[in-house]
Amino acid sequence: MKNFVKALFAAALILINCAASHAMLGENESETRYRYMNATGFADYPPFGTFYRGDFSSLFDDFIKDFCTAKDFEITYMSSQDNYNQDVQDVRTGNIDFIIGMYSATDEYRGIEFIYPAATINPIHIATLPERTEEIQTIDDLKGLKGLISAQEHLSDYINDKIGELQIEKNSSSYDMFEKLAKGEVDYIIGSRYFLMIESAKLGIKDKISFSKKAVWNIPVFFGVSKAYRHRGLVMEFMGKELKKPEVQQKINNYLIQMIHNIERENAGVVPPTFINK
Questions:
Q1: Which of 91, 180, 230, 234 gives 20 to 30 Å between its CA and that of 191?
Q2: How many CB atoms lie within 10 A of CB 221?
Q3: What distance in Å separates the CA atoms of residue 158 and residue 155, rounded to the nearest whole number?
Q4: What is the Cα–Cα distance from 186 to 76, expressed in whole angstroms?
Q5: 219: part of which helix (H) or strand (E)?
Q6: Which residues partner with 150 through β-bridges?
Q7: Contact at 8 Å (CB) between 88 and 99?
Q8: Burial tier of 187 (Cβ tally within 10 Å: 0-12, 13-18, 19+)
Q9: Are the beta carbons of 224 and 115 closer than 8 angstroms?
């Protein structure tokens, strides 16, 4: 009988401990209901990615916010800012979980999981002075001409190879690029239409620059996930399904248009540099 009572008492203690453990687990789950993800992106390449005073912004802001709300994610953005290649390497090795903006068939992103379909397109155009627009429209028109490309541009390996065949120099200053174009020291600037629109708006010269009627290249822009990330499958499945929806793609595009419009409006009163009138 004594043994039976002891056994009954032991069983009761086990049940009490289990209940207490379950309660504690419930409290912990409540406290940590968010899934955590750190992310990176282009540090200085608007509208695809900009880090400013520790904050990251891009044309995908709304999409990422919707994702976080739907799946209870909390994102921390990380960037070395002066070494984009290191940020990409950190995604590859698992030190960073997610990357906003990457290109297929490009060695730099090898080893990172792509989320399909692409989140948007980066159209590469030729920018010229208005009087030369009709003359310079295609890649073939660039042969024998001098051009510039911003050091801030991010392009796929294929396009970098094609640009390497032309007389195109890199320049780290948008001001210098547009000044050389205005003075006739170069014939054109090539790069992302959106990026060049934003840079020219900041200088107050957006109406003084013309773009080729069609993009010379269109680069699909993807999201990427580290293969080491514990929630990789969930992120890929959810975002992949969302990006297939026409209304989601339209929402991203609408956000892009509004983003550029806001930048143009904010810089509407900027006095153009003196070189633009020479």
A1: 91
A2: 23
A3: 8
A4: 42
A5: strand 217-225
A6: 171
A7: yes
A8: buried
A9: yes
Which residues, 6 or more positions from 142, have their beta carbon under 8 angstroms from its beta carbon? Answer: 126, 136, 166, 187, 188, 190
Rounded to 5 degrees, φ, ψ at 57 are -140, 150
pLDDT of residue 1: 52
Contact between residue 79 and residue 51 where contact means Cβ atoms under 8 Å apart: yes
- Structural contact between residues 226 and 101, judged by C-beta atoms closer than 8 angstroms: no
CA separation for the pair 211, 127 (Å, rounded): 5
Instruction: Please check whether residue 157 is in contact with residue 106, taking contact to mean a CB–CB distance below 8 angstroms.
Output: yes
Strands of the chain, DSSP E? 35-41, 44-45, 49-52, 55-57, 73-77, 98-102, 113-128, 147-150, 168-171, 188-192, 210-211, 217-225
pTM: 0.86
Rounded CA gap, 195 and 47, in Å?
Answer: 6
Residues in the chain predicted with pLDDT less than 70, given as ranges, are 1-32, 277-278
Cα–Cα distance, 224 to 97 (Å, whole number) = 9
Q: How many residues does the chain have?
A: 278
Token pair listed for 142:
């660039």
Instruction: List residues bridging with 155 in a β-sheet.
Output: none
The neighbouring-strand residues paired with 189 are 127, 148
Q: Which residue, 17, 25, 100, is CA-closest to 56? A: 100
Output the six-digit token pair for 218.
């269109």
